[in-house]
Write a structure and sequence with these properties.
About 50% of the residues lie in helices and about 15% in strands. The protein has about 350 residues and is of the alpha/beta class. A six-stranded mixed beta sheet has the order 6-7-5-8-9-10, with helices on both faces. The protein has a four-stranded parallel beta sheet with strand order 2-1-3-4, with helices on both faces. The radius of gyration is 23 Å and the shape is globular. The chain binds guanosine-5'-triphosphate and magnesium ion. Magnesium ion binds next to α7.
């Protein structure tokens, strides 16, 4: 077989007022997410309408059209760039004969694929369970519907009791996972306390996914076993490295974190709270961005990162902006320290900036 890649149609609803829209740019991030998952985007479909349909997200007719295109082009999945409600998933699957995912489904699947440590796996499992609860009713309704069509006599009441039982079971499972995550976060907290007692300040690397946080950690600390990849969410089990600051003769700890992305649901962030406590407690944040992005992308991503920092109650922590990947494109911004983590450019300037803020 030549390729076993999942063929995907990506779709979105855009307000009518946006007259010209560059499809390539609009879908660039979702296409990368699909790619990270091992799929390939075959068609990009944009529907212009005031707002997504409450019933089917895409308009009803458009949904049928997308379903037909999926069949014709042998696609195995349709991915919607927004966040679908339970009933919208149900209504869409009535019209589209292949898998229907939303943006969060894709992100969760990438997380599931990349999680390697016990803690990361638990966090992802929790996020998945939480995300699936609102979809339970409709999913069960689908099964009911199919069974009814098959001629079986199903009492609706019985089905709903089943759904309640399933929901209770999931909530119990989440509780168990929380207990395990809590045990692990107690260990982390103790490690942090111990570090604090030893007087080592912590600097946390934050930023949009794929901006080069892990590469910068490697470049600054020389740490070898840090995973770097041209993938979204390469890091789910962040490492710590130590950084020697020669001018102030001090050692600081540098903490990598998971990457942020737009429309990351609060539950997903909450699932990673144990890992992200590091960010809130850091003495200094290095906010890394990819300076080879367009100005518009840079500001969109910075805004997303700052919003997530606010969610994490870390928006007031001192922050240094770091413009990474300057080897790809000249960077002229004034408020950021230009570096190339890959080519080791600008690192002494960055070290000096850290020294000034740590003193
Ligand atoms: N050209 C260039 N590429 C870079 C630079 N820094 C990182 N990269 C590349 O950017 C990609 C992402 O780098 P990572 O360090 O894994 O990014 P990250 O921010 O840790 O990403 P996540 O953990 O997925 O959130 C990799 O392919 C790196 O090789 C740089 O300074 N210049
Ligand atoms: Mg990383």
């Amino acid at each position: 077989m030549l390729s076993e890649k999942l063929r995907v149609i990506v779709a979105d609803v855009i307000p009518k007022e946006l007259l010209k829209i560059d499809e390539e740019k609009h879908f660039a991030e979702l296409v990368r997410l699909v790619e990270t998952l091992g799929g390939m985007t075959v068609v990009k479909i944009i529907q212009k309408r005031g707002q997504p349909s409450g019933k089917t997200y895409l308009g009803t007719g458009k949904a049928v059209e997308v379903g037909e295109a999926a069949k014709e082009l042998k696609c195995g999945a349709v991915v919607v760039n927004g966040i679908l409600k339970g009933n919208q998933v149900y209504e869409l699957t009535q019209r589209i004969p292949v898998i229907v995912w939303d943006r969060v489904d894709v992100i969760l699947r990438i997380f599931e694929k990349h999680a390697s440590t016990t803690e990361a796996k638990l966090q992802v499992k929790r996020a998945r369970l939480k995300y699936d609860i609102p979809k339970l009713y409709r999913r069960s309704a689908t099964t009911l519907f199919e069974r009814e069509r098959g001629g079986g006599v199903i009492q609706r009441g019985a089905g709903e009791t089943g759904i309640e039982a399933e929901k209770r079971h999931i909530l119990r499972e989440i509780k168990m996972i929380d207990a395990k995550i809590n045990r692990l976060s107690v260990i982390r907290r103790n490690q942090r306390k111990h570090r604090r007692r030893s007087g080592l300040p912590t600097v946390a690397l934050v930023g949009y996914t794929n901006s080069g946080k892990s590469t910068l950690l490697k470049a600054l600390t020389g740490k070898r076993n840090v995973f770097v990849a041209d993938k979204f969410f390469a890091t789910l089990d962040p490492r710590l490295g130590s950084l020697w600051l020669p001018n102030i003769r001090k050692k600081v700890l540098l903490a990598d974190t998971i990457g942020f992305i737009e429309k990351l649901p609060p539950d997903l962030i909450a699932a990673f709270r144990a890992t992200l406590e590091e960010v809130r407690e850091a003495d200094l944040l290095l906010h890394i961005f990819d300076s080879s992005d367009s100005a518009k992308e840079i500001s969109r991503k910075k805004k997303t990162v700052n919003e997530i920092l606010r969610d994490l109650k870390a928006e007031k922590n001192p922050q240094i902006l770091v413009a990474n990947k300057i080897d790809l494109k000249n960077f002229h911004g004034k408020n950021a320290i230009p570096v190339s983590s890959e080519k080791s450019l600008g690192l002494s300037e960055l070290r000096r900036a850290i020294e000034k803020r740590i003193l």
